[in-house]
């Protein structure tokens, strides 16, 4: 094989490699153009969901704080007092089940 034939083969080989690289780069650009909007939408949806979850957690935290503010001993005493008054009034009006 002489030098000219070797150079011609190497040139053809380099052209084939660069052609393959160009095809790969083109495919990556096309897939990127197709996938980036979908990925952006998915990330946006996840961000929106996380924001909603954060709001729900804040609401739940506020509800727990409100529950913790309730004085259950006084509430129980008030219910017992109301029960006693209701029973007394039922006796007065003759509606007692006793």
Note down, in words, how this protein is organized.
The protein is an all-alpha fold and 98 residues long. The protein is 90% helix and 0% strand. It has one domain (3-92). The relative contact order is 0.04.
How would you classify the helix and strand content by structural class?
mainly alpha
pLDDT averaged over residues: 90
What is the total number of structural domains? 1
Low-confidence stretches: none
Largest sheet data: none
**Helical fraction:** over 70%
Strand runs, count = 0
Described by the principal axes of the CA atoms, the overall outline is rod-shaped
Distance between the termini: 121 Å
Q: Helices and strands, in N-to-C order?
A: HH
Q: How large, in whole angstroms, is the Cα Rg?
A: 40 Å
How big a fraction of the residues is strand? under 5%
Helical segment tally? 2
Give a concise summary.
Helix content is 90%, strand content 0%. It is mainly alpha-helical and 98 residues long.
Features of the shown structure:
single chain, 98 residues, mainly alpha
List the helices and strands and how they pair.
Elements (H helix, E strand, L loop, with lengths): L2 H67 L2 H21 L6
């Amino acid at each position: 094989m002489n030098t000219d034939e070797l150079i011609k083969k190497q040139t053809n080989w380099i052209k084939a490699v660069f052609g393959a690289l160009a095809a790969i780069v083109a495919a990556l650009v096309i897939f990127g153009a197709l996938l980036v909007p979908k990925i952006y939408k998915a990330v946006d949806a996840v961000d929106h969901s996380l924001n909603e979850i954060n709001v729900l957690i804040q609401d739940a935290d506020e509800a727990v704080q409100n529950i913790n503010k309730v004085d259950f001993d006084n509430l129980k005493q008030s219910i017992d007092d109301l029960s006693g008054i209701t029973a007394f009034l039922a006796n007065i009006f003759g509606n007692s089940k006793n």
